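Case 204 in the screening queue. Each case pairs one protein sequence with one candidate compound; here the compound is zinc ion. For every case the pipeline is the same: read the inputs, emit a complex structure as tokens, and attach any notable structural observations.

Predict complex for case 204.
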Amino acid sequence: MRYVDLTHVINNQLPVYPGDPQVKVSEVATLAHDGYTEHSLHIGSHAGTHVDVPAHMIKDGKTLEQIPVDAFIGHGRLIRVNDCEFNLKDVQAAGIEPGDIVLFYTGLSGQFNEPEYFEKAPALPEDIAEYLVEQKVKMVGMDLASPDYEPYAVHKILLGGGTLIAENLCNLEQLEGKEFKIYALPIKLAVDGAPARVVAEISE
Ligand SMILES: [Zn+2]
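Case 204 output:
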């Protein structure tokens, strides 16, 4: 077994979605002064690598703590998105099975610090989102800030259909051609989503 960390580092420089709160990690105790270190965290529930759950976009949708932990763990499938063009045929050919966690690899995580990453990235077409829900995929992840833009039709199709979303993944190139399992475990906040440590377990 080998593990690949698909998670961005959280610090005060973390780029956030336009309009979202800036992350603030501040020291509240120091070794020199208090004999221990501690920090306070000020962070949006959708900052950095994170998981969206239905309450994010769906009225009366489930919040994180209501979702069983097995919803965050599953057999992974990587789908390469060439030239930022999502293609339904590629998704249909990927041999997706119910309960899978499907990851779209666009290669754009390298632009995480650029404004284009948040403003100009490609959106997942609605027919692909519908197909993934029909296949009973547990979670859809991507190396993008969001699968779509306002009015968030794709978010609503996925979350309304019970498929969770993992956003701002990185290091997906390390999964090409591999068999792997995904652990995308968000902090157990009783809200609409939370930062997650997302890890792939590669079987070799
Ligand atoms: Zn989100």
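Case 204 observations:
- Residues 178 and 198 are 16 Å apart (CA to CA).
- Residues 46, 50, 52, 167, 193 surround zinc ion (CB under 6 Å).
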